[in-house]
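Running this now, will post back.
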Amino acid sequence: MILEIDLDSDRPIYLQIADGVRRALVSGRLAAGDRLPPGRELAGSLGVNLETVQRAYRHLAAEGVVTSRVGRGTRVSEAVDVNGLGLAEVIDALVLRSRELDLEPEVVVERVRHALAL
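Update: finished.
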């Protein structure tokens, strides 16, 4: 699995890692049941702290994207909704950008409704 992170990005590294896993699923490079690299291995290849990778894996587990078991590693959940993952990434980016611009949630919702109506 090849992940890229941007150390200069405003997006936290753990979220960039989670985004990369989601992209790998949407693109078909990862599938349900596939094992993710061990945390130490991924941290080493990305040049980041182990805790950062573990936080990304916990984030993905909370979303139901992966499951972790001691001694068995972290695997893509069998019940993962691949189609919904692409949308989740877009929504996360929209929320982040809206906060950066200090937009009121109501304004963002109204603009999304308008865009969907087109």
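The chain has a mean pLDDT of 91. More later if anyone needs it.
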